[in-house]
Amino acid sequence: MTNRGWQTLWHKHPAVRSGDQLTRGERAADHMRNVMGSWPFVICFFVVMIVWALVNTVVLHRALHHKAFDPYPYILLNLFLSMLAGVQAAALLIAAKRADAIASEIAIHTEKNTDDLKGLLKENTTLTRAMKKNTDLLEEIHRHVAALRGLPDAPAGSGSGDVAEGQPPPERPRPTSGPDESR
Question: Using a CB cutoff of 8 Å and minimum separation of 24, what contacts does 151-157 make?
Answer without folding.
Answer: none
